[in-house]
Design brief:
This protein is an alpha+beta fold. The chain contains 2 helices and 4 strands, in the order E-H-E-E-E-H. The chain has one domain. The chain has a 4-stranded mixed beta sheet. Bound molecules: zinc ion. Zinc ion binds next to helix 1.
Length: 72
C-alpha cells in the first residue's frame, strides 16, 4: 500500500471504469469493509464484462478473462 492508502496499479490495459472499480474497492479496504489484497487475488470490473484485474507483485494489473479463469 502506498502512503496515502492506495494500492499500486499498473495502468496498462486498464480502462477508466476498471480504475474506478479499484478506487471504490480501495476505499472499502481503507474503511475496513473489505480485506486487504493477497498475491494472486483477482477482481472483476464492475462496469464491463470479461476482463478484470489481478494483484501481482504488490500491484493491480489488467487481466484477461482467460487468465482470471486460470486463477480461479
Ligand atoms: Zn472496466
Amino acid at each position: 500500500m502506498t502512503e496515502d492508502g492506495r494500492y499500486l496499479i499498473r495502468t496498462g490495459g486498464l480502462m477508466r471504469c476498471c480504475l474506478a472499480t479499484l478506487d471504490e474497492w480501495s476505499a472499502r479496504v481503507a474503511a475496513g469493509d473489505a480485506p486487504p489484497p493477497q498475491e494472486g487475488d483477482t477482481m472483476q470490473c464492475k462496469y464491463h464484462e470479461g476482463e478484470g484485474m489481478r494483484f501481482r507483485d504488490g500491484a493491480w494489473e489488467w487481466a484477461s478473462s482467460s487468465s482470471l479463469g486460470e486463477l480461479g
